UniProtKB/TrEMBL annotation:
Domain Helicase ATP-binding: 25-193
Lineage summary: Bacteria, Bacillati, Actinomycetota, Actinomycetes, Streptosporangiales
Annotated protein name in UniProt: DNA helicase RecQ
Positions in coiled-coil regions: none
Occurrences of domain Helicase C-terminal (ranges): 214-363
Basic and acidic residues composition-biased segments: 501-510
Domain HRDC, chain residue ranges per copy: 530-602
Molecular-function GO term, any one: hydrolase activity
Pfam families reported for this sequence: DEAD, Helicase_C, HRDC, RecQ_Zn_bind, RQC
Cleaved signal peptide residues: none
PANTHER family: ATP-DEPENDENT DNA HELICASE Q1, DNA HELICASE RECQ FAMILY MEMBER
Catalytic function, reaction form: Couples ATP hydrolysis with the unwinding of duplex DNA by translocating in the 3'-5' direction
PROSITE patterns given in the database record: HELICASE_ATP_BIND_1, HELICASE_CTER, HRDC
Length: 602
């Protein structure tokens, strides 16, 4: 029988385990139960795939991602692993063939949709085979706290009673203490060993920029930093998804929309194109992305503020799974804060309190003058010993300034309108008053007679919006849910009385253009291709695209970008040399080795 490291080399073609993998794999190989918390892109799949290959019997993987099962199974088959799946998308013949293979011991891995386990027939089928382990993927789906709650997952606690001797491994990338505890208790994994991997993704560059003209900013970001790259752009609403996708396409950038309002066939088609084509952008609501394990997503852009740091980290984590440099970029502005503060006022008391906590953490991340990565990891209870050097605030530390007087001007305008006029207004009117603009609306309300009229000419319109945004973020101002009018908070009084200093972060006058030198500073693979290797890489990519198309699988199922880059750089001249490249396992070497060498020689 092969050892785990032998399987890693032979089947997957990788040199070494990533952090945490080996311990987890050995524990499960020996029959232990495990609960695994690992960030998106951390390498969870190997943690059950290798034990399933090492232990006798079939590894049963429970996954909610029905639309992706075919690709997952294709990727395993390309490695020479005997894999199959059972879900509602199959015809009877196909299902029976998979069932027969399972019972006959001709499978290494069987993927199952969770609802299958509710059917008695499935349980009886499983009884007839030899099971090596149960892997419960996306285990946070048992959690009432997450967005992806699936009642079917609750039934999974029954697995242990029916098959007490079969080890279970549950995996998730959602790792706040509350979710962790809930997964553990709902799946009956209190006795299991808990593995919490480091949540850092060093190859991802984080950047959060002040939103002024989002479309133009996005376009500039894509053109200067990611031309021709695949990526995801997240928006909050369906209509902005449609608009942005159209805008990008109009500007010659291939992009497709994805949201829950599109019919299932269109969604599936767009997802499939994203997985199969090189360099396509998906503009999406958060409905897109769970389980998308495309390794070469080069950027994730947010045009609206995510609802929580957890959501942000999961979404941005979809970038750069292959370990090459990737960018998490977000444009965020005053309207985001207003909108979220309003959303956070909906629902029952407990819900509201939770929303506010989530939002405050998210805003703190946006407004921080410190290292973003330090703050992100701290949110997951992990420590980074020094600033990362690969986020915007590390590379261009923002200045902070004493904004006490400007803050007082804003607050006192709000106060005067309320006291003297019994009026409330949104940010636009407040700023016009401060700037002394005699707009129709100002004149109509006689606001030019207020003592604060024109007292704020030391800042421009954009700066005032920045001040209001940060006051909202710090809770020194609030918005009314109904009309978005600004109102004072308890904390405002201290500022007005001069008992509290207000320090704000100076927004960059312009969106930063500079590309951090070399991207992921701390990433081992962050090297650019040498000049002579670039055309070779392009030839290999063309070969890969043709091969993938012929076989009807995503390009990355053939080889990852990282593997092609290494091949282009090393230019191996024999099969033996090619076999040493990371990502070239036994099966792929036999299947594609000659073709790759020919492509190199051509
Ligand atoms: P997760 O499910 O945790 O998001 P995956 O299991 O999809 O992550 O792995 C992310 C990527 O890293 C995949 O492309 C996988 O092939 C690659 N990978 C995983 N483990 C290793 C390893 N030990 N060496 C090299 N690449 C690895
Ligand atoms: Zn940093």
């Amino acid at each position: 029988m092969d050892t785990p490291i032998e399987v890693l080399h032979r089947v997957f073609g990788y040199d070494s385990f990533r952090e945490g993998q080996q311990e987890i794999i050995e524990h499960v190989v020996q029959g232990g139960d495990a609960l695994v918390l690992m960030p998106t892109g951390g390498g969870k799949s190997l943690c059950y795939q290798i034990p399933a290959l090492v232990r006798p019997g079939v590894g049963v993987v429970i996954s909610p991602l029905i639309a992706l099962m075919q690709d997952q199974v294709d990727a395993l088959r390309a490695l020479g692993v005997r894999a199959g799946f059972l879900n509602s998308t199959q015809g009877i013949d196909e299902r029976q063939a998979v069932e027969a293979a399972f019972v006959g011991g001709e499978l290494d891995l069987l993927y199952l949709a969770p609802e299958r386990l509710r059917a008695d027939s499935t349980l009886r089928l499983l009884d007839r085979g030899d099971i090596s382990l149960f892997a419960i993927d996306e285990a946070h789906c048992v959690s009432q706290w997450g967005h992806d709650f699936r009642p079917d997952y609750l039934a999974l606690s029954g697995l242990h009673e029916r098959w007490p001797e079969v080890p279970r491994i549950a995996l998730t990338a959602t790792a706040t203490p509350a979710t962790h505890a809930e997964i553990s208790s709902r799946l009956g994994l209190d006795q299991a060993r808990h593995f919490v991997a480091g949540f850092d993704r060093p190859n991802i560059h984080y950047r959060i920029t002040a939103k002024s003209e989002p479309k133009r900013q996005l376009l500039e970001f894509l053109r200067t930093e990611h031309p021709g790259d695949a990526g995801i752009v997240y928006c909050l609403s369906r209509s902005s998804v449609e608009k942005i996708a159209e805008f990008l396409a109009d500007n010659g950038i291939p992009a497709v929309p994805y949201h829950a309002g599109l019919d299932a066939a269109t969604r599936a088609a767009h997802q499939s194109r994203f997985l199969r084509e090189d360099g396509l952008i998906v503009v999406a609501t958060i409905a897109f992305g769970m389980g998308i394990d495309k390794p070469d997503v080069r950027f994730v852009a947010h045009l609206d503020l995510p609802k929580s740091v957890e959501g942000y980290y999961q979404e941005t984590g979809r970038a750069g799974r292959d370990g090459l440099p990737a960018t998490a970029w977000m444009a965020y502005g005053l309207q985001d804060v207003v909108q979220h503060r309003r959303l956070a006022l909906e629902g029952d008391e407990a819900h509201r309190r939770r929303q506010v906590l989530h939002l405050d953490a998210m805003l703190a991340l946006c407004e921080t003058a410190g290292c973003r990565r330090v703050m992100l990891l701290d949110y997951f209870g992990q420590e980074l010993d020094k600033p990362c050097g690969n986020c915007d605030t590390c590379q261009a530390p923002p200045e902070s300034w004493d904004a006490t007087v400007p803050a007082q001007k804003v607050l006192s305008t709000v106060l005067r309108l309320a006291r003297e006029r019994r009026q409330k207004f949104g940010v636009g009117q407040i700023v016009d008053i401060l700037l002394g603009k005699k707009t129709a609306k100002v004149l109509q309300h006689g606001h030019d007679a207020l003592t604060v009229f024109g007292v704020g000419t030391e800042l421009g319109n954009t700066e005032w919006h920045g001040v209001v945004r940060q006051l909202l973020a710090q809770g020194l101002l609030a918005v009314e849910p109904a009309h978005g009018a600004l109102v004072l908070t308890d904390a405002s009084a201290d500022v007005l009385r001069g008992q509290r200093e207000v320090r704000l972060r100076r927004d960059a006058p312009r969106p930063t253009r500079s590309r951090p030198s070399g991207g992921g500073g701390s990433s081992r693979q962050a090297v650019e291709l040498p000049a002579e290797a670039a055309p070779v890489f392009e030839r290999l990519r063309a070969w890969r695209a043709a091969t993938a198309k012929e076989q009807g699988v995503p390009a990355y199922v053939i080889f990852h970008d990282a593997t092609l880059r290494e091949i282009a750089t090393l230019a191996p001249s024999s099969l033996a040399e090619l076999g040493k490249v990371s990502g070239v396992g036994e099966n792929k070497l036999a299947k594609y080795g000659e073709q790759v060498l020919e492509t190199l020689a051509s």
